[in-house]
Amino acid sequence: MRAPIGPREMAAYASGAKLTRLQGIGIAVAVLAGLAIPALITDYRTFQFTLVLIYAIAVLGLNILTGFNGQFSLGHSAFYAIGAYTAAIMMDQWAIAYYWTIPVAGVVCLVAGFLFGLPALRLEGLYLALATFALSIATPQILKYDAFAKWTGGVQGVVIMKPDAPLGLPLSADKWLYYFSFVILLALFACAWNLLRGRTGRALKAIRDNPIAAGAMGIDTALYKSLTFGVSALYTGVAGALGAIAIAFVAPDSFTFFLSVAILVGMVIGGIGSIPGAIFGGIFIVFIPNVAENISKAAPWAIYGTFLILFMYFMPAGIWGFLRMVYAWWQRRRGPA
Amino acid sequence: MLNRRNFVVTATALAVALAYGHAAAQNKYDPGASDKEIKIGNTNPYSGPASAYGTIGKAIGNYFRMVNDQGGVNGRKINYISLDDGYSPPKTVEQTRKLVEQEQVLLVFQSLGTPTNSAIHKYMNQKKVPHLFVATGASKWGNPKEFPWTMGWQPSYPSESKIYVRYLEKEKPNAKIAILYQNDDYGKDYLHGFLDALGPKAKTMVVAQLPYEVTDPTVDSQIIKLKDTGADVFFNITTPKFAAQAIRKAADIGWKPLHLLNNVSSSVGAVLTPAGLDKSVGLITSAYIKDATDPQWHKDADYIAWNAWMDKYYPDGDKKSSFNVYGYSVAYTMTEVLKRAGNDLTRANIMKVASNLKAMEFPMALPGVKIDTSPTNFFPIECQKLAKFDGKKWELFGEVICP
Amino acid sequence: MDLFLQQFFAGLAFGGIYACIALAVVMIYQATDHLNFAQGEMAMFSTYIAFTLISAGFPYWWAFLATMLISFVGGVLIERIIVRPVEGTSVLNEVIVFIGLLTIFNSLAGWIWDFTIKPFPSPFPKEPVFGNKFIGTHDLGVIAVTLVVLGLVFMFFRFTPLGLAMRAAAQNPDSARLVGVRVGWMLALGWGLAAAIGAVAGMLVAPIVFLEPNMMISMLLYGFAGALLGGITNPVGAVMGGFMVGVIENMIGTYVPFIGHELKLSVALVLIIAVLVFRPSGLWGHVVVKRV
Question: In A, which residues are within 8 Å of B51 by CB distance?
Fold first, then answer.
């Protein structure tokens, strides 16, 4: 199997350690827009955008692993599920406040991801794909397993309470949860950016592009790779916990193999190896199935599949890569004048 | 003194007040209802691995189309909005919120699946929007005390299990029972209902209970193992594909227990024919609606009407699928509730009507099976009949049983 | 002992199917150097074509051959028209296109042929061979057909110039092009052959599990697992791997009480991965030495 990143993207992401002025402005605009969105739309739309944020975090988690470190995963639904069940069980069994479940879910998934990453070290390409594929097939079965049913609710799942805004803030539960998720997303995105622009990021990319050379240069590839798995799982687990709180329900059927596929699709469509691309990935995951369904109720998946193929034709570097290309083209046109 | 002008003004005011008062008394609406239309929401899996059930949602839409062609319900057209949730609970929440908050439907009808409905159970009751006749047989939908806005329709899975237990107690009190069940809420609801009904005897009578996953290619291995336990009764809690595999495999390896087949998979055309009619002889099931592929019903008026409806309104639907009979019957029930609600189309009144259906007959019901609800009984259909397969059709026997 | 033998042969029978899918997986891997996630759905779709032909009155074996041919052409066309534009961008882009194909075929099959299960005829007699009670004739037939296909694939890659050219095109496209191999057509050919083998697998599976649109979704995992366990570079290994997956899974389900049928797939997969951790190229695969 070839390296999951084409030469084009490699060149595009090799540079860029500091924020340019334009990037700074872009981020400020994006944050302001993100803060303003709930004020302009209904609770239902806010809820949809909360899901966008949640999937964006999950997509970024996978992106850290695949886009920056070159490890393939079809098993991120498992980490999403672990995060979701951690939150649900803490809230349901021990009546712990929802905000405490987020860090705990993150840590649990960090450990789970790290442990899974250890044997996965020996597996590359296809074999890693199979191992992670297996993980996501096994997850619903384990969640249903009778011995754990006391906590997981078995096939029935767990119903939890949707939190209200604290301190008597004049916000609906949906809007509050949106802001709550938004702040977490900003924090996680900032962390990812910090982590990936420096030494660590270079090491990860070196491992992705040439593991043997990276090892020869003194990078502890085994440690980095399993840690990356852990961090990636942490992000996805936090997303899972937020997802459980937003939906107020967890069940084995929510975390099938197709969730893994959705996260993978979101990553590639958003832009492999790009942090802002994750937002577009989240948008795709939430909205495109609805668009497909509007076009045809008879065979919505056929429409969805057609979308996937068309996106890959016209935006091979994902939506973010496409935007960069448009920007570069615009600069070139403006340049000589 | 009334002068003329005063009189006219007063009379007009009075007339307006009367007319208005009259209208107010007669036409009461909640969101989703008006003089012209009634908006009904629904979620179904049209995509993904559970899309086999999607035909129910389509059948219902086609039934409402027929109702509209015939003039609608009390002059109002039904506007049926059915959305795809892919059998994924998070998507169900999103789509249901779209129906309730954005489309402003009057009620949600026949949303499909146990995990999916569990995800919106609390939401619907907080919003006080009728969550009617959900398409799942779990027993939790009949709990009017805690969830007064949610109601099931079909007989609950545990109640069907109970019917089999009663039959066994009479016919085979010393049975050694082997059970195969789908490892999800549907399978476990049947299983637990069965074990509970057996009570303390379950420990000695049930010699094996094996699960399978929907993702398993076959259940051959389970059948071999069940046969090996020496059981003489086999309770088959499986969906159509696996039911057909189990029936065929049991016959192929020469296992001839008393075979109880859950109603979900009792279709002659869609399950028994693929499995082999000769291999299906002697199967026992319990039923509440007619199997459209069973020749014994083909002269009944309601079958002829159903058949004509399939031809005209759902020509690309599969007549072998029992889901299309189910969708027809349940859509009839909904239409009837709306008819009886008259011009008081408030959510509260819809629930009031739905919870006061007395011995209501419905098309494609087996003789003797009726819908009965009350403010404390949210299980519309509870009675079923046992039937034995004779190689061609289901031979009904015994009384209508209401556990 | 009866139970053991029956479970063993049931596992073997299923192993035969997994082996056949594993062969299709090996075929596409040898020809294009990656896995096709839509392979199962393509096989399912082919089987529906065979079903339509047989329902229209074609004799079984004619329908069988016609389906293989249609699938071959279909595979070539899919490669040329749909996959071609993303080739060489990145593996993940190709994977997304494969997922797109998967959803399209699954959805179309449900739309065209509906979801009710359909019985699919078996070409083999109903009576068990020599009156044995352990394995059905169709199951034996599956194993036999799988072995025949294996033989053909093996000889194709080993002894024909075309097979050699295809392997070269997959493993080192640039060098292959330099020595005059038409790499683009080799890829298309590989897709065609894999689609034809997939169609055979589908037509052998359908009589056992019944034909329906989701027939192959879970099957593909077993095929992948078998191919990787045995060694994806080695058709013989892949077939052995397929058989092993079938037998292991059945044995775990039957004899390990607390795992039982609830977790048998999970446990079987863990076992396979454990094997792969120690033998990363599969049990019978070639060890690939990497150059820096």
Answer: 301
Contact list in B for residue C205 (CB cut-off 8 A) is 217
CB C225 within 8 A of CB C249: no
Assign 3-class secondary structure to C35-54: CCCCHHHHHHHHHHHHHHHH
Asked whether the beta carbons of residue B118 and residue A156 sit closer than 8 angstroms, the reply is yes
A133, B217, B357 from A129: Cα distances, Å: 6, 21, 55
Amino acid at C201: A
Tell me the two tokens of residue A177: 């949860």
Chains B, C: CB contacts within 8 A come to: 99
- Which C residues in the span 168-197 are in contact with B, Cβ-Cβ below 8 Å? none
CA–CA distance, A247 with B118 (Å, rounded to integer):
11
Per the prediction, chain A carries an average pLDDT of 87
**Range C61-66, long-range pairs (CB < 8 A, 24+ positions):** C61/C123, C64/C123, C64/C203
Amino acid at B336: E
Q: What is the pLDDT of residue C273?
A: 80
User: What distance separates the 2 farthest-apart alpha carbons in chain A?
Assistant: 71
A293 neighbourhood in chain B, CB within 8 Å: 46-47, 83-84
Burial of C128 (0-12, 13-18, 19+ CB in 10 A): middle
* Residue-by-residue DSSP string for A255-307: SSHHHHHHHHHHHHHH-TT-TTHHHHHHHHHHHHHHHHHHH-SS-HHHHHHHH
Strand order in the sheet with B394-401: B206-212, B177-182, B233-237, B258-261, B284-287, B384-389, B394-401
Classify strands B384-389 and B284-287 as parallel, antiparallel or unpaired: antiparallel
Can you tell me the distance from the alpha carbon of B96 to that of B1, in angstroms, rounded to the nearest whole number? 60
User: Which residue, among C26, C90, C259, would best test binding to A if mutated, counting the most A CBs under 10 Å from its CB?
Assistant: C90
CB contact under 8 A, C261 and B218: no
Token pair of A191 as six digits: 């962390």
Give every residue of chain B whose pLDDT is below 50, as ranges: 1-2, 14, 16-24
For A196-253, how does the pLDDT look when each residue is reduced to its tens digit (9 = 90+)?
A: 888 888 888 888 888 888 888 888 888 888 889 999 999 999 999 999 999 999 999 8
- Subunit contact C103:A129, Cβ cutoff 8 A: no
Angle at A270 between CA A269 and CA A273, to 5 degrees: 110
For chain C, give percent helix, strand, coil, nearest 5: 75, 0, 25
Provide the whole-model pTM. Answer: 0.89
Contact C218 B215 (CB under 8 A): yes
Backbone angles phi, psi at C251, to 5 degrees: -65, -40
CB contact under 8 A, B274 and C118: yes
DSSP C88: T
Tell me the chain C residues in contact with residue B247 when contact means C-beta distances shorter than 8 Å: none
Which DSSP string corresponds to A34-47?
HHHHHHHS-HHHHH
Distance, in Å, from the CA atom of A144 to the CA atom of A153, rounded to the nearest integer, reads 8
Angle between helices C217-230 and C39-55 (to 10 degrees): 120
Report how far residue A41's alpha carbon sits from residue A46's, in angstroms, rounded to the nearest whole number: 6
pLDDT bucket at C167, cuts 50 / 70 / 90: confident
**Measured distance CA(A150)–CA(A107) in Å, rounded:** 22
**Does C3 sit within 8 Å of B225, measured CB to CB?**
yes
Site from B47, B103, B182, B216 to mutate, A interface, most A CB atoms within 10 angstroms: B47
Interface of B with A (CB under 8 A): 46-49, 51, 58, 82-84, 86-91, 93-94, 97-98, 101-102, 115-116, 118-119, 121-123, 183-185, 188, 213, 215
- Tens digit of pLDDT for each residue in B303-321? 999 999 999 999 988 888 8
